[in-house]
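Ligand-bound model needed. adenosine-5'-diphosphate.
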Amino acid sequence: MSDTMIEVGVEATQDAEEIPLLFLHQIERTYKQGDEALHILNSAELAIWAGQSVALVGPSGAGKSTLLHIAGLLEHPDHGEVYIDGRATAALPDHERTRIRRNEIGFVYQSHHLLPEFTAIENVLLPQMIRGLARGEAKKRAVELLDYLGLANRLNHRPTELSGGEQQRVAIARAVANAPRILLADEPTGNLDVHTADHVFAALTQLVRASGLATIIATHNMELAARMDRRVTIKEGLVVELD
Ligand code: ADP
Ligand code: MG
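Prediction:
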């Protein structure tokens, strides 16, 4: 991986007076399980500023994916508000939420979800073209990002021709292809062996630092979590800051 800075989103800011890029306010989410109500999130609060990386840790079933889906506007909370760069999103029409999601938010899942019939480079340039970029421009950025993530020699490989770690690095490149300001990753190294997970995580955190993204990464791995700026968990429906 090269050490050169790469422009992905906004510049990092240390100014605490700035409004958070992502602000979850009084988020409630309840699932019905038979006759029982599962209060997964119960007035949860979380604010993340540009340039900040937050590890979301906690056992399986704690509500990490639920929180990320709500933060990523993939799911509506039952109550509460998600502010993206100060803008309330709950009452926005679906097409506007989709627009914000496409332009401002990148998502990385545990499985890569790459399109199998397309090459690495095509997987990264497609979201940019959907957004309206010309193919040449999109391709240039795709090459830049893949190169940054150490995949310069894998540009024309299809997902099945890539290792698990390489697939996840392509998925990371795709997630930031449209220069989002927020990156959400749901156990992005959960399917990888320890060594590969370490490598992918290093690539991810370097990208986050260089780009000033506001990032939440859900992970079970406390060693990886220790490398982030902040660590939070979900306890009794609340987001709790660790150490
Ligand atoms: P985590 O990602 O931390 O493992 P999740 O957010 O996926 O946790 O899930 C939190 C809890 O909510 C789990 O107990 C899960 O079974 C429950 N849950 C998640 N989604 C649904 C759903 N659509 N319907 C009912 N229960 C759900
Ligand atoms: Mg989960």
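The chain is about 35% helix and 25% strand.
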